[in-house]
Design brief:
By secondary structure, the chain is α+β, with helices and mostly antiparallel strands. The protein has a domain of about 90 residues: 60s Ribosomal Protein L30, Chain: A (2-Layer Sandwich), CATH 3.30.1330. The protein is built from five helices and four strands; from the N terminus they run H-H-H-E-H-E-H-E-E. The chain has a four-stranded mixed β-sheet, covered by helices on one side. About 10% of the residues are buried. This is Cag pathogenicity island protein. It comes from Campylobacter lari. Keywords: Signal.
């Protein structure tokens, strides 16, 4: 009898505990520090800081990029390519016309301000999705033609 009463009591406690809904989460106050920090992280900046070393010297760099299923740049290429692009004064894109136009649009949408020159070529043999990019920077701002 004691066993039956204990089981009945246990079953009713479990049933009552499971039947009630979960407690609602507490809302954060609008002026809390957490809300402020999140808004700082969500703020979009409209500039990219220039690299001081690259800004104070003359340089040229060439890189080969290939468009693939995943996009225009691989994860390994993103940092290096954008570092160069954001610090360059002039960029020359060489490749199939529609592909280099796609790269130009992509870089402009991502804040690259360098002058971009497109040099379309007809690729007969090889990968038509591959382009060459030439990056130029002159510390005095004058790049010879």
């Amino acid at each position: 009898m004691k066993k039956t009463l204990s089981l009945l009591l246990l079953a009713s406690v479990i049933f009552i505990g499971c039947a009630s809904s979960a407690p609602k989460p507490k809302k954060l106050e609008g002026g809390s520090k957490l809300t402020l920090n999140n808004s700082l992280l969500e703020e979009k900046y409209r500039f990219v800081p220039k690299d001081s070393k690259l800004s104070n010297m003359d340089w040229i760099y060439q890189i080969e990029l290939a468009k693939n299923k995943e996009g225009l740049l691989t994860n390994e290429q993103i940092v290096k390519t954008f570092l160069l692009a954001h610090n360059a004064k002039r960029i020359i894109l060489i490749g199939e016309k529609n592909i280099i136009q796609e790269y130009e649009e992509y870089f402009k949408k991502n804040g690259v301000e360098a002058e971009m020159i497109l040099q379309p070529i007809s690729i007969i043999k090889g990968d038509k999705n591959t382009i060459n990019m030439l990056f130029f920077h002159a510390k005095d701002g004058e790049i010879n033609e």
